[in-house]
Structure formats: structure tokens, C-alpha cells
Design goal:
182 residues; elongated
Amino acid sequence: MQVLISPFAVCGRAGPAEDGELGAWLGALAALLLVPLAWNRLWVFADEYRLWDDAVRLLHGENRLGAQRTYYGRAHASVQMKNWDAAIADYQQSILIDPSRAQVHMGLAGAYYGAKRYAEALAVLDKLIEREPRNAKAYYNKGIILGMINDKVAGLENLKKSCELGGTIACATVYLGQLKKN
């Protein structure tokens, strides 16, 4: 003989008193089961990194439409957390998928800079300048990095080049440097 325990047995009844009560019980049971599942998914929206990390995991290693942007987004979030190695890896993956995006190369150079890997940052910027010789931001960033490694003359030349190409921050930096000399 098999004994079935109904949720109504807890209330001391054999079954629902009214049709609406069964719906209430089923709704409560569904909520008990679904709330933990929903809560488990909500962690994805806790911060920018988790959002992009979840998106990368959903790619399953495929380089499909949007994959470049997804790796770029996670790299950017890693930079905000100063997780330089993770950012570098994701920027590199983004470049492998689509090497034509200058902002990804700039991000990679910035991650190398943050990791104090100045030679690698300069190499990325040199390749970008070779591809886009009128990229004022690339010259500006190269000038700043060269200044950081005490190559002030080459740094100033790159800042001036950036200024010539319309880089207003570079112009201000050069002007302030000249004021400082005088």
C-alpha cells in the first residue's frame, strides 16, 4: 500500500476546501522553487565585471557576432578593477577577433601601462600609429609613456605630434611644459 502526502495534510485536511486554495498552494510552492533560481541569476547584475564575464561565458569560446565587443567589455571592467593581466588577455582576444578597432588597441596599451609593462604598451602604440598615422590619441599616450620611462625628448615630440593632429590635451600639456621651463 502506498501513502501519498498532500500539502493539505499539513493543514489537517484531505484536500482543498475551495478551488482557489489549490492555486494558492501551487503558487507558494512555485515561488519557493523559483525564487532561489532567480536569485542565483541576479548576481550577474551586481557589477559591470560580472555582467561581461557572464556574457563571455555564454560565448562558449565561439567567435560569433558580438564576441569582440564582449571581450572588450570584460577587459574594460577588468581595468576598472585594476586586474591588468585579465584585461590584457581579454583585449588580446578582442584584437584576435577584430584587429581593426583602434579603441581596443588603446585599451590594450593602457592595460600594459597599468601593469607597468611600458615596452609592451609602446609596441602596441607603435603598431597602431603605423596603421593609423593620424591617430592623435595614440601619439599622446605614447608621449606620456615615454615621459614615464624618462625619455622626455621623444615624449615631447609625440605630444607635439598629437597636438598637430588635433589632440587638445596634448596641446595643453606641451603649453604647460613650456610655461614650466620659463
